[in-house]
Amino acid sequence: MIAAPPTTAPIVMPASGTYRYTIFSSASTAPIGHTTVVVTIDDRGASTNEAFVAPTATARTTSSYDARLRLRAYTGANVGMPPLSIRVEGHDAVMKLGSTEQHIAIAHPACAVVADSLMSAMVMLPAVVNASQATDCTFVVPNAGRAVDAAIVAASPAPPSSALGGHDRALVVRIAQTTETIWYDPHTLVPDDLEAGAVHVRLEARSAATAPPVLATPAPLHSRYPSREVRFTSADGSSIAGTISYPLRGRAPFPAVLLIGGSGSNDRNEQVGSLHPFFDLSQQLNARGFAVLRYDKRFAGRSHSALAPALVTRTSYLDDVRAALATLRGDPRVNPAKIALVGHSEGGELALGAALGGAPVSALVLLAPLPMPYLAILDDQRKRGMMSSAMLAQLEHANAHFLASWNGIDPRAEIARVRQPILIVHGGRDENVTDAELAPLVAAARRARRRITLVTFEHDDHLFTHGTQPFDERVSSAVSAWLRSMWSR
Fold first, then answer.
1. Strand partners, 231
2. What are the domain boundaries of the chain?
3. Mind listing the pLDDT tens digit for each residue in 146-158?
């Protein structure tokens, strides 16, 4: 625990400087990412400026605190995502994500941070707790549009081997039934080490305050094929923006595919850092004679949601798929008898759900699909070290409404009832959906005598890339060949 300062003592600020952390997972000895946090102190209070870099993701955030270390504002800029800002006034936080605005209640404004799965909140937490003398804090979770409460608990865990000089103190945070331990330097009030279940974050270097590294802005993407922008309205009034691209050669109407993105606020290209798998896939399918519709999910790109993030459900995303499909079928250059749904990750289950709901499509392609109930795959990922128990508890609490909408949804049961032929494509190095997790989904289809084909590319990850290499063109080749074989029968 942090010793509470006397009530008459001045607020102790964290030490200014640039702090570089390395992030590890128990699933691998190699780092899974690096983050640099600049802490700046002035007469107005404190601020943090963070740059996070991982093989398939980059992000930048800023947070500001007043002279009493109460959270005032936050901004987030993730490559390929809409701008995010949060302004805190007492017990009310106003969050703007793209064009959507919502209010979030702050139960403990004296001890509040933004929990965005990055490090800047944890960097500030020891000083914030020390200043507020709080035993309860509020974590604002922007990607869920909610706030969750966390307790500061009295505990004396054994110090980690990396604790610098053995003088560090422990700050133990409990979220639901899980805990995270922050080891911090009592002189700087800045963490040296964070233990969060299977995730371990370690301070590697500290220097005088400088600007964090500038995140590279991806070059604009230019299609080599004719395309047009489209906008359609979902069932709840949300306005969804997308692109339909066409082959250069051949005669219309063309066979077509509808790309359905994975979890999160993905844009139409599924942009992750410098990677853009859906753009690459659409270009490669255009080259093979297919028209392709890809679209920005709610809260991403040019799409606008009529619902706040906390109110969006599985049905919301299914309605978006149906509206997109109606747009594609209404295009005179598309053959409505030869349309396939191509869903990635969570989008794979949405493809199954749309088909079972009567979507007029003649084939399904599932790219690294959600293979089991949502909560089950999240727990599997926790067991494999992709997140800590505390992170999972926070995610489940913050996304309770969305996850509840998936209750009773089991892709293994769905795939046994789908009538369309199915192609599943998987990467042998996929850490989000492993071979062992995918196998029961395939087995369920085969037991039900569904028409199913499985193709595995041993060296591909969840985005069907090799590290930072572009989208694996063998995937589009397999999809194209399989669809043509189905539609030639």
1. 241
2. 17-207, 227-373+408-487
3. 888 889 887 666 6
